[in-house]
Write a structure and sequence with these properties.
By secondary structure, the chain is α/β, with parallel strands linked by helices. The protein contains twelve helices and 16 strands. A five-stranded mixed β-sheet has the order 6-3-5-4-7.
Length: about 400
């Protein structure tokens, strides 16, 4: 068992230190990994085994979720599983990486639990074996943060599940294709001609799609409601979205079964033409996996064609953006000269700067105004040339600020 890094104890002024909960005689504090990312990354580099990245989900009623969480952590940790797993009373949502040699044992472990028996897997399209650094199994209220009141509509009344060939055919026949992902996900790849939400949350995307469909229904004289085809990364968000749309009165709703990930698998297996263009955004260390060679986005900093998506490396920013290789070098993997100046400080001074500051991306996940960003960069470069720094207050942590190229 990996020894966690020591942490400063929390003091409870009224009741004194609280005892840790135990599970089957084990300190549950140890049923998690607290090592720093650099230590985890080095360990993964040394591992030297082939890994497979896969995802799965299932809406199913689960009981004693806390105990189940501890059981799964112990069981999967012993199999070398890394990843992000959410469980709740409504089911499980998992994205994991594990040694390829342990796939059969992992399958058997899942099938041994009635709730997870025969749960379908979706294997990653591209896999460098470094999609996750640690195992994190978390208990949540919902397995997808959708912001919907599930008791207000029938969550089981979902749209028709379509395979890749049928989805392609219905697109050709004129069905309305709707992307149920956030704006930053569909930036780097999407189905040709799909409606792409501007919202950066799932709840916001659903509300936007409902308004769009209502407007379309009012503005068009049609004898038959057009068919709506939904898609997302792995299919899980479409389960809720299709049920919600049907609750809102849109009865002719279907969804891509298995999402973009399984669509790509079916393309290879059946020799189908891809109607999806570009990359598929994924929520792990890879950030994206390529489906086709099409590049459908451009660098947010210089405007050249690019679909290289990354996070700003300045830790208090961490904003997602599309950034070409040339701009990555120019701005030191940061979104702006302001972030670059902080990121290029010695690590001790960076930590002093970060103290007490919240991360910008906790409120907004991604840059959503590229032209505004380019304008900000021009203004910051002018100020930097004039003053030698964009952060005069840095003198408290860095007496000799240096200018950036």
């Amino acid at each position: 068992m990996m020894i966690p890094c020591p942490r400063r104890p929390r003091l409870h002024a009224l009741n004194g230190p609280q005892p840790r909960r135990t599970f089957a005689g084990m300190d549950t504090h140890r049923l998690r990994n607290l090592d720093r990312p650099d230590i985890l990354r080095a360990k993964l580099e040394r591992e030297g085994v082939e890994r497979t990245t896969l995802s799965f989900y299932r809406y199913v009623r689960l009981k004693e979720v806390e105990s189940l969480r501890h059981e799964l952590y112990q069981e999967w940790d012993s199999l070398g599983v890394l990843g992000r797993i959410y469980i709740s009373q409504e089911g499980i949502n998992a994205q994991v990486s594990l040694p390829t040699a342990n796939l059969n044992r992992f399958r058997a472990a899942l099938d041994a639990r009635e709730a997870f028996a025969n749960i379908p897997w979706k294997i990653a399209v591209e896999d460098d074996g470094k999609s996750f650094l640690k195992l994190a199994v978390k208990v949540k209220k919902k397995i997808v943060a959708d912001g919907l009141a599930d008791d207000a509509f029938d969550v089981t009344d979902v749209g028709e599940h379509l395979d890749a060939a049928t989805f392609n055919r219905k697109m050709e026949e004129g069905a309305l294709v709707v992307d149920m992902r956030n704006n930053y996900e569909c930036l780097i790849g999407h189905f040709k001609g799909a409606y792409l939400p501007k919202a950066d949350t799932f709840r916001g995307a659903i509300e936007e799609v409902v308004k769009m469909l209502e407007k379309k229904r009012r503005s068009e004289e049609v004898s038959k409601e057009p068919e709506v085809l939904l898609y997302c990364t792995g299919g899980i968000r479409c389960e809720k979205a299709s049920a919600y749309l049907k609750h809102e009165g849109f009865t002719n709703v279907a969804q891509l079964h298995g999402g973009i990930i399984d669509y790509a698998r079916q393309l290879k297996a059946e020799g189908l033409q891809s109607k999806y263009l570009g990359q598929n955004f994924v929520f792990d260390e890879r950030l994206a996996e390529r489906i086709t060679d099409d590049v459908v986005s451009m660098c947010m900093q210089c405007g050249t064609k690019s679909d290289r998506i990354t996070n700003c490396h300045e830790a208090t920013c961490n904003m997602l953006l599309v950034q070409c290789e040339a701009c990555a070098a120019k701005y030191a993997d940061c979104c702006s000269p302001s972030c670059r100046e902080i990121h290029q400080l010695p690590i001790e001074q960076q930590r002093a700067w970060r103290k007490g500051r919240s991360t910008r991306s906790t409120k907004t996940k991604a840059v959503n105004d590229p032209e505004g960003l380019r304008r900000r960069i021009r203004e910051e470069e002018e100020l930097l040339a004039l003053n030698g720094t964009l952060h005069p207050q840095l003198t408290t942590v860095n007496p000799h600020p240096r200018t950036s190229a």
